[in-house]
Amino acid sequence: MVDTDAAADLREKLVAELLAQEKIVSEAVETAFRRVPRHQFMPADTELAAAYGYDNSVVTKRDDRDRALSSVSAAYIQAAMLEMAQLRHGMTVLEIGSGGLNAAYIAEIVGPEGRVVSIDIDPEIIDRAATALDATGYGSRVRALVADAEHGVPGEGPFDAIIVTVGAWDIAPAWLTQLRPEGVLVLPLVMNNVTRVIAFRRDGEHLVSTAAEVAGFVAMQGDGARADQIIELPGPAGGTVRLSFDSRAPSDLGQLDGVLTAGATESWSQVTVAKGVSFADLHLWFACYLDGFCRLSADSETDVATPKRWLPLAAVRGAGLAYLILRDAPGGAEFGARAYGRDGQLAADALNEQVQAWHRSERHTTPTFAYWPTGPDIPTDAAAMTKTHGVLTITWPTGS
Ligand SMILES: C[S@@+](CC[C@H](N)C(=O)[O-])C[C@H]1O[C@@H](n2cnc3c(N)ncnc32)[C@H](O)[C@@H]1O
């Protein structure tokens, strides 16, 4: 039996934290977070404290390899995305990726004159969402239906805002067709293995970002799904090390066979980061500018640079691989590279050079993102990523 007083107290505490961290900045989103009983959209065995955590996401479904297929997103990113969407009373809103909770927040914000459509590719998730929406009194205010977002929602729209709550590698043409010309599209966009939640508005034929946030989301399924290219290498301690490439995998990865079982060298960038300071934008910088960039993961810590701290960011050059490491430095830590294989030093140099280039840029300033569904006006001075349906450009305040 849930203690409703305890839930109400936790809800107030959560709202206070979201306000303090400026994830909630409008009265409409604040009221929604005060009213919607968040815990009633969670699996029954979820602790109240977890349901009302600031940055807790709660997985609701996994695949047979234990990867999350669906989750209730963390409160901070739900609040931030609702603010980014600039929702107002009476709007028509599409939520892509359902669960019920976020749709209830949207219903609170757009009010009875508004319209909320919430879709999910998974019938089980839509059943769960519909049941929770009915139980909390939002059932009649949200249309929850099964659909693959890649194809939009036939018979619905146009939408004033589309909020995508699942990791998208590209912007489906159907979303732009169903978005009003002045509408806002908010989505977690996967850019060469790095995700940012971005709010876009139209500017003529292309989209320009108005805000961005760091967050992770479960991956898109269905016709818009995009599989990473993954290679597995035997690690130095006998475990498996995985390299995961997005769209720019080098063609000759076979040269890396056995590369991790020979010795390693380390080199240092002389770039430091102060203790407690985020360097999330370094990941995005690598995604933009580091050739052969990939994510690295290991079954066991003994296969990576213990006792040094390591980061899951790596570069491949020919028959060489290097990944990012940290060592203590006065007031914080210095970035460096651990290199393996015949061309390992080339990979390490490339990694350290991009750490230095990021450092010379305004390293804590968020770049501007633009998406170009069609042609000729794409700027040539920005980092560009070619997607299936358009080109994404990323412009850093001072460029590289
Ligand atoms: C993070 S969960 C959604 C969270 C929910 N909006 C909330 O706030 O609690 C992402 C959902 O996207 C769904 N999904 C994945 N691919 C999809 C697709 N192509 N079309 C529609 N839904 C999709 C998954 O089934 C999953 O339930």
UniProtKB/TrEMBL annotation:
EC number of this enzyme: 2.1.1.77
Location(s), subcellular: Cytoplasm
Cellular component terms per the entry's GO annotation: cytoplasm
Example of a GO MF term: protein-L-isoaspartate (D-aspartate) O-methyltransferase activity
Location, primary (coarse class): cytoplasm
Keyword Methyltransferase: yes
Keyword check for Methyltransferase: yes
Pfam families, sorted: PCMT
Annotated keywords: Cytoplasm, Methyltransferase, S-adenosyl-L-methionine, Transferase
Superkingdom of source: Bacteria
SUPFAM superfamilies: S-adenosyl-L-methionine-dependent methyltransferases
Enzyme class of the recorded protein, top EC level: transferase
UniProt cross-references to InterPro entries, sorted A to Z: Methyltran_FxLD, PCMT, SAM-dependent_MTases_sf
GO annotation, biological process: methylation
Entry similarity comment: Belongs to the methyltransferase superfamily. L-isoaspartyl/D-aspartyl protein methyltransferase family.
Protein name, per record: Protein-L-isoaspartate O-methyltransferase
Organism: Micromonospora inaquosa
Gene, per the UniProt record: fxlM
